[in-house]
Design brief:
- This protein is α/β, with parallel strands linked by helices and 498 residues long.
- It folds into 2 domains: 3-248 and 455-477, Aldehyde Dehydrogenase, Chain A, domain 1, CATH 3.40.605.10; 252-436, Aldehyde Dehydrogenase, Chain A, domain 2, CATH 3.40.309.
- It contains 16 helices and 23 strands.
- A 7-stranded mixed β-sheet has the order 15-16-17-14-13-19-20, sandwiched between helices.
- Strand 2 (6-8) and strand 3 form a beta hairpin.
- Helix 1 (40-57) crosses helix 8 (206-214) and helix 3 (80-91) packs antiparallel against helix 7 (180-191).
- It is globular and about 85 Å long.
- The chain starts with a strand and ends in an 18-residue tail after the last strand.
- The relative contact order is 0.14.
- The structure holds nicotinamide-adenine-dinucleotide (NAD).
- Residues 146-151, 155, 173, 175-176, 205-206, 209, 224-226, 229, 247-250, 281, 382, 384, 410, 451, 455 line the site of nicotinamide-adenine-dinucleotide.
């Protein structure tokens, strides 16, 4: 059985811990590898490698850092298919989707290639007689990234290119369910010329996460995952004096107004609900049909959802692969059954999937539930599977109130032909990322990504300008080069400009 090692100080290592975890192929249900699970001494090794490397990496010139980022960008591009194959093998998503994930990660590298421009400070000449003032930003030290299973390349790349470009060193703790892509990323960083110790990978579970949160030499933690763990990571990390940004789960609503083209809306909603088997933090999981949109929307969704091709991610004909584990499959099917018991109407039932060889894998078909109400568990929980629930609202105001009452605030979208309705919606919803006739409004790399409410703990979103701020701290210098012979008498009063 293949073992997936950590990557510490520029080389693979099994680490000191004797623990391993299974890595499955979700399309077949078979174990395909085992992954080393770090203990605190392995984490300590990785952090020490990062601390040692920080001394010189933080002093490396912007042009040298940029050259490495450009080289890394070329290597990731050249290895897109290799990364995509690793993602599909361990996560299960279809290859085209996996390639798209790599592309979105690559865009963050491209953003980070502009680091000399992004790190420019401010300068004020002659703030007082003979005195200038200026600001600049410096890296924090060793920073950690703790990432979820659903984007094993893109989410780590939301973090590490920006952190490293800013002059930090990085310890990544990827999901133990699909760990291989992180190791290939580490190899590509090394090939790009990144010095040993600047990018490290420790695999593991709660033991490794806690060791990172408690480690005195980890300055900051970026976390992406479910809300309960995000809250925990935020509270424990900040109580240890660290800077923490922790992105959590989601319940993303799409409001459908009666004036929209229902074919267009249904087409985009099914892709947004069932792409990656609904395992995206920006997946649409709740459609809110306003006024008399409901019946037309349901019929259009029924037609679209019934045609989605479910199968192994490596098959070119598959549009939707399996979910991540048997536990996830059972949980998703249980949510659908409980919704039916609580009064929802099944429009499309994906609890059983027909097809050769699909029974052993973790496949769940596209499912659409109508007449769902906010009290039902299927609405209250983040199902994180291919389940789209339809709620009904009488007016746009009611739809906005429903969204704003939901504890999550990651993404949302509106389908309409009315600019006025769209503008009201974008101004009034308490959600971080909003789409207008765009179902999955993931910001481009040069903006920042993040939700509101229980979808984000901390003050800064990831990547983009907020990522640069998160991974650096500011200094402001007030400087004078006196001509001593001309007299510069000190004053005992608080200094003011003169
Ligand atoms: P998860 O919370 O189970 O795991 C995330 C990370 O935390 C993993 O590295 C895991 O090893 C670690 N972890 C798990 N349990 C832990 C514990 N008890 N203590 C310490 N660490 C622990 O999430 P997941 O199932 O891997 O990913 C899916 C979740 O991530 C969904 O809720 C999804 O909405 C969310 N997500 C959010 C975003 C976003 O941008 N807001 C993006 C992607 C995924």
């Amino acid at each position: 059985m293949k073992t997936i090692d950590h990557w510490i100080d520029g080389k693979p290592t099994a680490g000191a811990a004797q623990r391993v975890g299974p890595v499955y192929d979700p399309a077949t249900g078979r174990q395909q590898a085992e992954v080393a699970l770090a203990d605190s001494s392995d984490v300590d090794d990785a952090v020490r490698a990062g601390s040692d490397a920080f001394a010189s990496w933080s002093q490396t010139s912007l042009s040298k850092r940029t050259a490495i980022l450009f080289a890394f960008r070329e290597l990731v591009r050249a290895h897109t298919d290799d990364l995509a194959r690793l993602i599909t093998a361990e996560h299960g998503k279809v290859l085209a989707d996996a390639r798209g994930e790599v592309q979105r990660g690559l865009e963050v590298v491209e953003f980070a290639c502009g680091i000399p421009q992004l790190l420019k400070g401010e300068f004020s000449d002659q703030v007082s007689s003979g005195i200038d003032s200026f600001s600049f930003r410096q890296p924090l030290g060793v920073v950690a990234g703790i990432t979820p299973f659903n984007f094993p390349v893109m989410v780590p790349m939301w973090m590490n290119p920006v952190a490293i470009a800013c002059g930090n060193t990085f310890v990544l703790k990827p999901s133990e369910r699909d760990p291989s892509a992180s190791v290939l990323l580490a190899e590509l960083w090394a090939e790009a010329g990144l010095p040993d110790g600047v990018f490290n990978v420790v695999h593991g579970d709660k033991v490794a996460v806690d060791a990172l949160l408690d480690h005195p030499d980890v300055a900051a933690v970026s976390f992406v995952g479910s809300t309960p763990i995000a809250r925990y990571v935020y509270e424990r990390g900040t109580s240890m004096g660290k800077r923490v940004q922790a992105l959590g789960g989601a319940k993303n609503h799409a409001v459908v107004l009666p004036d929209t083209d229902m074919g267009f809306a249904a087409d985009h909603l099914t892709a947004a609900a069932f792409g990656s088997a609904g395992q995206r933090c920006m997946a649409i999981s709740a459609a809110v049909a306003v006024g008399d949109a409901a019946e037309r929307l349901i019929e259009a969704l029924r037609a679209k959802a019934s045609t989605v091709q479910v199968g192994p991610g490596v098959e070119p004909t598959s549009e939707m692969g399996p979910v991540i584990t048997q536990t996830a499959k059972d949980r998703i099917i249980g949510s659908v059954t409980s919704a039916e018991g609580q009064g929802a109407t099944l429009v499309v039932d994906g609890r059983t999937v027909e097809g050769d060889g699909l029974q052993e894998g973790y496949f769940v078909g596209p499912t659409v539930l109508d007449h769902v109400t906010p009290e039902m568990d299927v609405y209250r929980d983040e199902v994180f599977g291919p389940v789209l629930v339809v709620l009904r609202a009488e007016t746009l105001d009611d739809a906005i109130a429903l969204i704003n009452a939901n504890p999550y605030g990651n993404g949302t979208s509106i389908f309409t032909n009315s600019g006025q309705a769209a503008r009201r919606f974008q101004r009034e919803v308490t959600v971080g990322m909003i789409g207008v006739n765009v179902p999955i409004p993931v910001p481009m790399a040069y903006y920042s990504f993040g939700g509101w409410k229980d979808s984000l703990f901390g003050d800064t979103h990831v990547h983009g300008p907020e990522g640069v701020r998160f991974y650096t701290q500011a200094k402001v210098v007030t400087s004078r080069w006196p001509q001593l012979e001309s007299g510069n008498a000190a004053s005992y009063s608080f200094p003011t400009s003169s």
